[in-house]
């Protein structure tokens, strides 16, 4: 049976247009597809400029989570919105041929205001604001957020002289007015006008399929621009522009980049040329030039040396996960819980077991540490959590049923199993009583196998820390052994939150049981301060 390619996209008009373009290209190649819209954080919080939200990947993270949870096969992005470091396990698989990369000015009346001292224009982009104020220092720049139609309506309703848009966005949905002014002097955002497709690194079939959609020249140019951005360590919080294009006549790559202070008063520009094939160091050389000319100092002055907020993660975060937090936030982390696998005797694990319950990935790893997967004789496997299910099906075998938490799973089993039936529960020495208590009350026999030990390993957390990230009830229990609970508790799920509420006054719960979702919770909380 032919695979149906599930295409993830934001649900704005522009994002849907881009996704449908990819869908059309794939279907022309003979593939079956399905569009799956996903709401993004950047579409939900419209009352703040992007740089004040301080979130890298604000328009892409929910799609990343959907992909990691196996809800979609590919994600379609405006490439300029994608962080330069993708989450672990996700890669860029194609870039479509680039459209118009320029910024344009939509006028309310005419261009005469540009020569006047009191002009007012609107944009939600820090880069556009800084470049405009550098050129027109006496003008005022108002914040403008929302999808294309929302921003056009705001321009109509407000007493502004004009507003700045990306040309490609308006042109794709057929909304570019005839009188729009091309801002050819304004250096665009890195990868502006390009559409990126991402997929799981391990999905060889999807990678091969999407390769046919990739435009090599666009890939070369946008990779240079994004490397320049990455080397300056800038994102939505720094006014950085970059543009690379290929001069086919000379067979060379032309690049120009810019970094400004947020008020537009300071500016560093750079440009380079190199033959195609010998362009490897353009981005590095240009970024180093900007840094040597004082670029880092400009960014430090804008950000401020003191960190406004500080958080502590009770689990070590990857570098990619840390980059999902704003640069203005101090982040510390350590593993507050450590795992040691127990020896499970062959007598327990090698015989045929009718009903098996596993509530964590640690349980899966402990079982596989004790026995090879092909020696296991598990007839029905029940589990808690998508990631646990995914690991079981990758390493052991088919999961008969899974639930989001132990409480729901115990309720399900109480209804499905008969009195007197047995369940083998592979658990930790520290576990919630919910599942065994509920099943025993229903007349189901629970055989608990202590597959691993959970050991507390708390660290002393600075009193200045504003929030703590928790990923299990055990991490909460470990934390309170050495620390006060006078902070905000950001929890991965309701079971963790239930434990946190015993100690913390302010507890917030992530929408999805993933580390990335907890990080998003942190971003949303502090963006409202």
Notes on the protein architecture:
- This protein has 529 residues and is an alpha/beta fold.
- The chain folds into 5 domains: 118 residues, Periplasmic binding protein-like II (D-Maltodextrin-Binding Protein, domain 2), CATH 3.40.190; 80 residues, D-Maltodextrin-Binding Protein, domain 2 (3-Layer(aba) Sandwich), CATH 3.40.190.10; 89 residues, Double Stranded RNA Binding Domain; 99 residues, 3-Layer(aba) Sandwich (Rossmann fold); 112 residues, Rossmann fold (3-Layer(aba) Sandwich).
- 33% of the residues lie in helices and 26% in strands.
- The two termini are 51 Å apart.
- About 3% of the residues have low confidence.
Q: Would you state the CATH class of the largest domain?
A: Alpha Beta
Q: What share of the residues does DSSP label as strand, in percent?
A: 25-35%
Q: Based on the coordinates given, report the CATH architecture of the largest domain.
A: 3-Layer(aba) Sandwich
| CA-CA gap between termini | 51 Å
Biggest β-sheet: strands ordered side by side in the sheet: 16-21-20-17-18-19
- This entry's quaternary arrangement is single chain
Radius of gyration: 26 Å
What are the low-pLDDT stretches, counting only 5+ consecutive residues below 50? 42-56
What is the β-strand count? 24
Number of domains: 5
- State the share of residues found in helices, binned by percent: 25-40%
What is the CATH superfamily classification of the largest domain? Periplasmic binding protein-like II
CATH topology of the largest domain: D-Maltodextrin-Binding Protein, domain 2
Looking at the structure, what is the overall shape? elongated
**What's the helix count?**
20
How is the main sheet built? Answer: 6 strands, mixed
């Amino acid at each position: 049976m032919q695979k149906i390619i599930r295409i993830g996209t934001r649900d704005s008009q522009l994002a849907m247009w881009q996704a449908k373009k990819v869908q059309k290209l794939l279907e022309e190649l003979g593939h079956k597809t399905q569009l799956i819209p996903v709401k993004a954080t950047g579409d939900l919080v419209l009352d703040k400029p992007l740089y004040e939200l301080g979130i890298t990947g604000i328009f892409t993270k929910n799609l990343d989570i959907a992909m990691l949870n196996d809800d979609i096969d590919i994600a379609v992005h405006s490439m300029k919105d994608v962080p330069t470091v993708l989450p672990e396990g996700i890669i860029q698989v194609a870039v479509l041929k680039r459209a118009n990369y320029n910024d344009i000015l939509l006028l309310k009346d005419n261009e005469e205001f540009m020569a006047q001292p009191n002009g007012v224009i609107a944009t939600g982009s820090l880069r556009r604001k800084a470049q405009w104020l550098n050129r027109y220092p006496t003008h005022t720049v108002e914040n403008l957020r929302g999808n294309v139609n929302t921003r056009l309506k705001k321009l109509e309703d407000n007493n502004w002289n004009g507003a700045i848009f990306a040309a490609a966005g308006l042109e794709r949905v057929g909304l570019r007015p005839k009188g729009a002014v091309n801002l050819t002097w304004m250096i665009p955002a890195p990868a502006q006008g390009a559409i990126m497709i991402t997929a799981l690194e391990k999905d060889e079939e999807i990678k091969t399929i999407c390769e046919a959609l990739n435009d090599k020249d666009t890939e070369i140019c946008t990779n240079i621009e994004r490397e320049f951005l990455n080397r300056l360590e800038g994102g939505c919080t720094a006014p950085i522009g970059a543009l690379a294009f290929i001069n086919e006549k000379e067979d060379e790559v032309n690049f120009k980049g810019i970094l400004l202070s947020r008020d537009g008063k300071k500016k560093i520009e750079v440009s380079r040329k190199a033959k195609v094939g010998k362009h490897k160091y353009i981005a590095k050389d240009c970024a180093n030039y900007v840094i040597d000319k004082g670029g880092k100092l400009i960014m430090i002055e804008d950000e401020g040396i003191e960190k406004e907020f500080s958080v502590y993660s009770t689990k070590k975060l990857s570098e990619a996960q840390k980059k999902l937090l704003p640069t203005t936030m101090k982040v510390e982390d350590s593993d507050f819980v450590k795992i040691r696998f127990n020896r499970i005797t062959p007598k327990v694990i090698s015989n045929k077991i009718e009903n098996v319950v596993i509530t964590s990935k640690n349980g899966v790893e402990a079982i596989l540490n004790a026995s090879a997967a092909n020696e296991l004789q598990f007839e029905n496997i029940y589990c808690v959590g998508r990631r646990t299910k995914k690991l079981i099906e990758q390493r052991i075998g088919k999961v008969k049923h899974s639930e989001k938490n132990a409480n729901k799973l115990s309720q399900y089993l109480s209804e499905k199993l008969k009195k007197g039936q047995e369940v083998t529960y592979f658990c930790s020495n520290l576990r919630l009583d919910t599942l065994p208590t509920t099943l025993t009350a229903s007349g189901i026999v629970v055989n608990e196998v202590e597959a691993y030990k959970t050991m507390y390993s708390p660290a002393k957390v600075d009193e200045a820390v504003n929030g703590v990230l928790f990923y299990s009830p055990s991490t909460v229990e470990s934390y309170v052994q050495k620390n006060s609970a006078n902070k905000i508790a950001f929890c991965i799920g309701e079971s963790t939150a239930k434990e946190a509420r015993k100690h913390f006054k302010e507890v917030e719960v992530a929408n999805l049981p993933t580390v990335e979702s907890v990080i998003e919770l942190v971003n949303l909380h502090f963006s409202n301060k």
